[in-house]
Amino acid sequence: MSAQYNSICILRLSAIGDVCHAVAAVQAIQAAHPQAKVTWVLGKVEAMLLSGLANVEFVIFDKKQGSAAYKQLKSAFKGRRFDVLLHMQVALRANLAARCIPAKVKIGFDKHRSKELHSLFVNRTIDAQQSAHVLEGFQNFARAIGVSCNAPSWVMPFSEQDEHTASGLLAGRNKVFVIAAAASKAERNWLPERYAEVAQHAHENGFDVVLTGGPTELERTLADDILSYVTFPVLNLVGKTKLKELLCVLKQAKLVLAPDTGPAHMAVTVATPVIGLYAHSNPTRTGPYLYLDYVVEVYHQNLVKQKNKTADQLPWGTRVKGADLMSQISTEHVIAMFDNVVIKERL
Questions:
Q1: Is the dihedral of CA 183, 91, 292, 26 positive or negative?
Q2: 160-344 is classed in which CATH architecture?
Q3: Of the options 2.60.120.10, 3.90.1560.10, 3.40.50.2000, 3.10.20.30, the CATH number for the domain spanning 7-144
Q4: Which residue, among 148, 235, 226, 150, has the nearest Cα to 194 in the 3D structure?
Q5: Which residue of 46, 59, 150, 325 could cross-link 279, Cys pair, CB 3.0 to 4.6 Å?
Q6: Among 210, 244, 225, which residue's Cα sits nearest to residue 46?
Q7: For 103-141, how does the pLDDT look when each residue is reduced to its tens digit (9 = 90+)?
Q8: Which of 83, 88, 194 is nearest to 137 (CA)?
Q9: Integer CA distances (angstroms), 86 to 42, 93, 101, 139, 316, in order
Q10: Cα–Cα distance between 75 and 69 in angstroms, integer?
């Protein structure tokens, strides 16, 4: 599509990692269509991270409100009509939200990535892609409205106070190694004793180790378990930072270790190298985009074991199942990757 746009609506409700991927596409759209007013419909938690994003109007969709959330969305857009809606989420909740957004053109995913009735809520689609990372899929939405997307870049919203708070939390620590240990599901977490072993190695190599995470019981318990194995000072920030403050902590860090979790992608947006640990999802699709070479994974071997096929022979994004898959990632492999990254990044 080659056209002049005065109003563009983005629909991507969640999750933290995905909205981080989407920011790069949104900012590319803004650069190509500076005259257009950009409105983004997103989730309540995600808005806490992205609030203040330059020249973007945010409309919050709070899924906890159930049917009332859709009524509020209709009310928010009463009397408005967008030139185009970029419908970047195939979940049924998002599809129903798309019904509440008036737009001349509604662009969604191609038929191969469409599910949960997604195709019924759009009238145009992006071009199909083979083996694309999630971020590259979002870039194709930008291309669909005439934007030339090259290497992604981000200008994330945070204040001087956010940076000051992060600096205060990290005071006296100049070479920070962040362990963002918890994913959204326990089965995607690595073993606490192995996190501790890598932390010990980092400590012995001159790094100050910092644990980060949210306030959930899962995250606090995992942090406590990791700390029970260490014999040196570790700064535990789990549950002690707001999202923007966490972003600034990640920005000031030298290196991050994380499983498949939002902070890994937050770190990418502020150019902090990430060692990603993956077992259930294909890191080529969902890994920390700028640092895919730093991933330690057992996904592909388990995919072949469970499906008798490789990733190229299966629907893109096929996941593998198992409660103990992360235990197949050895401490030795992660420490070897740590040493490799330290040399490559000159840390």
A1: negative
A2: 3-Layer(aba) Sandwich (3.40)
A3: 3.40.50.2000
A4: 226
A5: 325
A6: 244
A7: 999 999 999 999 999 999 999 999 999 999 999 999 999
A8: 88
A9: 12, 15, 11, 11, 22
A10: 10
pLDDT in tens, 151-169: 999 999 999 999 999 999 9
> What does DSSP say about strands 82-87 and 56-61: parallel, antiparallel, or unpaired?
unpaired
Supply the pLDDT for residue 3.
77
Structure tokens, 28: 């590319």
| pLDDT single digits (tens) 59-103 | 999 999 999 999 999 999 999 999 999 999 999 999 999 999 999
SS3 state of residue 175: coil
Helices and strands per DSSP (H, E), number in the chain: 13, 12
Looking at residue 166, its amino acid is A
DSSP 54-77: TTEEEEEE-GGGTHHHHHHHHHHT
Max CA pair span of the chain: 62
* Backbone φ and ψ of 79, nearest 5°: 85, 0
At 105, phi and psi to the nearest 5? Answer: -125, 135
The length of the chain in residues reads 347
Per residue in 20-58, pLDDT tens?
Answer: 999 999 999 999 999 999 999 999 999 999 999 999 999
CB 314 within 8 A of CB 176: no
CA–CA gap between residue 265 and residue 33 (Å, rounded): 26
Give the pairing type, strands 208-212 and 176-180: parallel
CA dihedral 50, 51, 57, 61 (to 10 degrees): 80
